[in-house]
Amino acid sequence: MYKIVAIDGPAGSGKGTVAKILASECNLMYIDTGAMYRAVAYQTLKDNISIEEEDKIVEIAKNSKIEFVDGQTYLNGDNISKEIRTMEVTRIVSPISSIVKLREILVDLQREMAKGANVIMEGRDITTVVFPNATYKFYLDASVEERANRRYKENKEKGMDVSYDEILENIKKRDYNDMHKEVGSLTRTEDSIYIDSTNLTIDEVVEKMKNIINN
Ligand code: DC
């Protein structure tokens, strides 16, 4: 039986950071499902398609090859890891991820990617839709101000000039949209282990999760 560690939580809750560390320390394959929605959003912008043109966006997903190699995100062979983190992509990714047909395609792909491997997968609907029977289910949370603060610092380190207020506003909007989707809404399930990381360091969160995964 392969192990599946599923993590859900809102933007900036630390899912990506802890999942990467746990992947390397516990020998798990890391799948960042948000990066897959971002890849589609990136191509939507590149093709000058508006977010209302849902059929065209679904076509992008159908015709694209999204892969993860050495922690990098590739779209049709191009490394787009940096491009998918821009504010332009971040602004449109949540509405794009509400497209039900697009979700079906990406959920199938996520299940396919996880076949035959021990996996750690993070996103918004992993514990509810993609792998409701995962070996371990976590819901990672933090206050909205702390999450905005983390993103602000991350962006600054990357040399991206976005104000704290714009990030806070974007996170609030995404939280609302991500929690009110027709399909795949961010939900905290009763059987998920809840971790509030507002006052915890990354190491402390990793330690907590590692103890659970290793036991
Ligand atoms: O985790 P992230 O911020 O990179 O995700 C980007 C967006 O993609 C997020 O606003 C919601 C969406 N998403 C989703 O709907 N389902 C997932 N499993 C992962 C992300």
Describe the model.
With 215 residues, the protein is of the alpha/beta class. The chain has helices at 15-26, 33-46, 54-63, 87-96, 100-113, 126-130, 144-157, 164-179, 202-214, and strands at 4-8, 29-32, 66-69, 72-75, 78-79, 119-123, 136-141, 193-196. The strands form two sheets. It has a five-stranded parallel β-sheet with strand order 2-6-1-7-8. A hairpin with a 2-residue loop joins strand 3 (66-69) and strand 4 (72-75). Helix 2 crosses helix 4 (87-96) and helix 4 (87-96) packs parallel to helix 8. The protein is globular. The relative contact order is 0.22. It binds 2'-deoxycytidine-5'-monophosphate. 2'-deoxycytidine-5'-monophosphate is lined by residues 11, 33-34, 37-38, 93-94, 97, 123-126, 174, 178, 184.
Topology overview:
Blueprint: E1 4-8, H1 15-26, E2 29-32, H2 33-46, H3 54-63, E3 66-69, E4 72-75, E5 78-79, H4 87-96, H5 100-113, E6 119-123, H6 126-130, E7 136-141, H7 144-157, H8 164-179, E8 193-196, H9 202-214
Parallel strand pairs: 1-6, 1-7, 2-6, 7-8
Antiparallel strand pairs: 3-4, 4-5
- CA radius of gyration is 16 Å
Low-confidence stretches: none
Distance between the termini: 16 Å
Strand content: 15-25%
User: Which bin fits the share of residues in helices?
Assistant: 40-55%
Number of helices: 9
Q: Average pLDDT, to the nearest integer?
A: 96
Sum up the overall morphology in one term.
Answer: globular
Based on secondary structure, the structural category is alpha/beta
Specify the biggest β-sheet: 5 strands, parallel
Q: Which cofactor or ligand species appear? A: 2'-deoxycytidine-5'-monophosphate
Beta strand count = 8
Give the H and E element order. Answer: EHEHHEEEHHEHEHHEH
